[in-house]
Each structure stands twice: as structure tokens, then as C-alpha cells.
């Protein structure tokens, strides 16, 4: 399968790291450490190979992709030797990146996005193209009557004014271009009835939301432990320190609130109740693309004895996210090839706020993912 990955936010850190990683894997210059699909239980022939992937995308910013990769190398995110070795490959990808369209109406903008996707597919003779949103987090969107039905949405988009947030407009354009859609952010994306209707009409799969890379990954492991041992979690508080573009974007109160809500959901749904405490996200410019999370958990045991657990997670956001972006794109492309449509609930393993009514325990999500990929591989 010749397959395309169209990245929204294509010149950002996560997108650039994903592209460098995929090109390095294709060239045999690195190992697939962090790629879930490299796990023996998940490494399926149905997934497109790295040598079969082509990259394109939109961004509101300009500047050579190789320059962004050099900045990531200087920050210790990617090896400088890879950026040097892949210079010509990065230039080839750069030729397929486009300025984000901005039409007179949102219908015009969506049409321009769809046209770019169609031209990308035709130019590289691709069998499938998946659109992956790795752009900045949006504030929660305000309800609009047109969100509830496809006909009303089409009519509203042709008028003036903002009907859809950018993430949802991209989902709308992707579906119109017959492309599945993956939202790696906590933004609204395809989570609107009108867009679910469009995906069903086109027979397209979609997945999301908010990639699970650090603190919430640990929550999805630890929370089931407390639940299974019948220990009462009294409070769970966390402080997240982020730098880079993601951290700067989360200075906005609306975006920060959307991200925080996504991070807390796993606790409520795993434990069956909401412990005291909250998650705070602060921007620290000096730490760049790296992040630190510190959590304090207080819990009660037998006879009411009070105890606590603390953990500190330090990691590089882009290096944690990029292999998951590649995993999600490859699995979604294979799902599209197999004729799957609608929300891909079996991809909950990758997300803080997954689609559908799913188990948030990481071990259960892994088993569901393994079964799903096995079915794709067997053609069932």
C-alpha cells in the first residue's frame, strides 16, 4: 500500500520529529524504539511499511522543515547525525507542505484543504491518505445548531462566521477527500454528530483524542492498581511543567482547561469516583521540548491507615509522541484498507480521552488493540 500521512501542524515539533523518525526508519538508520507496532504482538503485515509512507501537511507558519529539525537536534530531541543524513529527504517532504488555507468562508477553506489532499494523493499515486492533527490545543468549542446534522452544517459553512473550530474543519475536509482522520490533540476534531454522519456517509474511520505520552500514561497504569486492590484514593494532584510551543499555547486559559479536563478523565472513569485534587499545567520556557510531571497520591488502606505515593515523570514530549503518531497513522490506514468505518474505539490505548465507552486500564486497552490488529492482519 502506497500511503500518505497529512499532518496538521506540519512544521511543529511533534510533526517534524515524526517525519525525521519515519525517514530514519525507512533508511535503516535507527530502531523502532517507542513504536508500539514494533511489539511482537502488534507487528502485522497489514500495516503499511515505513518505505511506503509519504508525508505532507498544512501549517500556519513557514520555514524549511530541515531548519526545524536542526533546532530539535540542537535541543537534544533528535540526533544531529540523522538530520544531516536525511537532508535531501527532508527537503522532499518540505515540498509537500502547504500554508494553511484561509478562505472567505469556512466552506471555501474546507474546499481548499480537500483540494490539497486530493492533489497530494494524485501526485504520489497513493492508495490511501490519513490526516493526523498534531496542531496546538484549542479551547473547548461553543455549541452551534449546525453541529448536530450534516445538511445544516453544510449550509452554515457556506455563510460567514465561524461554525467549526479548526480541528473540526480539517476533519470535515478530510472526510470530503475520502481520508480517515486522527486527532492526537484534545481539540474537538471529529467529535460532532454532523461529522460522525459525514464519516458514516463516506465509510471512513476516525480516531482520537489527546495522545497519552506521560503523566496520564502512568495514571492509566496506577489507577487500576488502586481499584483492583480496593484501596481508596483520597486525593490525586499533579503539576505539569512544559516548555516549547505546546507549553506556550497552554498559557491560554481555554486551551489549558481543555487539556486539563482530558488528563483528569482517566481517574474518574477508572476509579468510579473523583478523588480530591486537580492537575495544573504551567509553562516554563527554559525547558524547551521537555516536560516534568510530579504527582502526589494519598490513599487509605485497612483500618483507615493513610498512605501516599509520589512519582516524577521527565521526558521529551516530541520523542514520546512521534512514534505514537506513526503507529496511529499506520493502523488507521490499515483499518481504512480493511473497510472499517466509524470511531476506532480499539485505538483507546493511545489516548487520554478516547472515543467510545472504553476501559481506561492500560493492560485492557493493549489487549483490545492486539485483537484489533490481529483481525486486520487476518482479514476478518
Number of helices: 13
Helix content: 40-55%
Task: Report the uncertain regions.
Answer: none
Query: What class, by secondary structure content?
Result: alpha/beta
- Shape summary: globular
| Beta-strand content bin | 15-25%
Oligomer: single chain
Number of strands: 11
User: What is the H-and-E element order?
Assistant: EHEHHHEHEHHEHEHEHHEEEHEH
Radius of gyration: 20 Å
- Largest sheet data: 7 strands, parallel
> How much is the average pLDDT?
93
Spatial strand order of the main sheet: 3-2-1-4-5-6-11
Distance between the termini: 18 Å
Q: Any overview of this molecule?
A:
With 380 residues, the protein is of the alpha/beta class. Helices cover 43% and strands 18% of the residues. It has helices at 13-26, 65-74, 80-85, 87-94, 106-123, 150-157, 166-176, 193-202, 215-228, 244-249, 253-271, 317-337, 362-378; strands at residues 3-8, 53-59, 97-99, 128-133, 181-183, 205-208, 232-242, 279-283, 290-300, 306-316, 342-343. Strand 1, helix 1 and strand 2 (53-59) form a beta-alpha-beta unit. The chain starts with a strand and ends with a helix.
Amino acid at each position: 500500500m502506497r500511503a500518505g500521512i497529512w499532518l496538521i501542524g506540519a512544521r511543529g515539533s511533534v510533526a517534524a520529529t515524526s517525519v525525521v523518525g519515519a525517514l530514519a526508519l525507512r533508511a535503516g538508520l535507527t530502531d523502532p524504539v517507542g513504536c508500539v507496532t514494533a511489539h511482537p504482538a502488534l507487528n502485522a503485515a497489514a500495516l503499511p511499511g515505513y518505505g511506503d509512507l509519504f508525508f505532507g501537511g498544512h501549517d500556519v507558519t513557514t520555514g524549511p522543515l530541515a531548519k526545524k529539525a536542526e533546532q530539535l537536534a540542537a535541543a537534544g530531541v533528535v540526533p544531529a547525525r540523522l538530520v544531516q543524513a536525511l537532508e535531501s529527504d527532508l527537503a522532499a517532504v518540505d515540498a509537500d507542505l502547504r500554508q494553511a488555507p484561509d478562505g472567505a468562508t469556512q466552506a471555501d477553506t474546507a474546499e481548499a484543504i480537500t483540494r490539497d489532499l486530493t492533489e497530494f494523493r494524485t501526485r504520489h499515486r497513493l492508495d490511501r491518505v490519513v490526516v493526523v492533527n498534531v496542531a496546538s490545543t484549542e479551547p473547548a468549542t461553543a455549541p452551534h445548531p449546525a453541529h448536530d446534522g450534516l445538511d445544516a452544517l453544510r449550509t452554515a459553512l457556506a455563510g460567514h462566521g465561524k461554525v467549526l473550530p479548526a480541528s473540526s474543519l480539517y476533519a470535515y475536509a478530510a472526510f470530503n477527500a475520502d481520508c480517515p482522520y486522527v486527532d492526537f490533540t484534545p481539540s474537538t476534531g471529529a467529535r460532532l454528530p454532523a461529522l460522525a454522519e459525514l464519516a458514516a456517509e463516506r465509510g471512513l474511520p476516525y480516531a482520537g483524542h489527546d495522545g497519552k505520552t506521560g503523566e496520564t500514561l502512568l495514571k492509566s497504569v496506577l489507577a487500576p492498581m488502586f481499584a483492583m486492590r480496593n484501596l481508596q484514593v483520597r486525593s490525586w494532584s499533579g503539576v505539569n511543567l512544559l516548555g516549547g510551543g505546546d507549553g506556550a499555547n497552554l498559557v491560554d486559559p481555554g486551551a489549558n482547561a481543555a487539556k486539563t479536563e482530558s488528563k483528569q478523565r482517566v481517574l474518574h472513569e477508572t476509579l468510579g469516583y473523583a478523588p480530591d485534587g486537580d492537575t495544573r499545567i504551567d509553562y516554563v520556557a527554559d525547558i524547551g521540548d521537555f516536560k516534568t510531571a510530579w504527582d502526589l497520591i494519598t490513599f487509605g488502606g485497612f483500618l483507615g491507615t493513610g498512605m501516599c505515593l509520589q512519582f516524577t515523570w521527565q521526558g521529551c514530549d516530541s520523542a514520546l509522541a512521534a512514534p505514537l503518531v506513526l503507529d496511529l497513522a499506520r493502523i488507521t490506514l490499515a483499518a481504512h484498507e480493511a473497510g472499517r468505518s466509524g470511531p476506532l474505539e480499539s485505538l483507546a490505548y493511545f489516548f487520554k480521552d478516547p472515543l467510545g465507552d472504553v476501559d481506561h486500564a492500560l493492560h485492557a486497552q493493549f489487549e483490545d488493540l492486539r485483537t484489533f490488529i490481529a483481525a486486520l492482519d487476518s482479514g476478518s
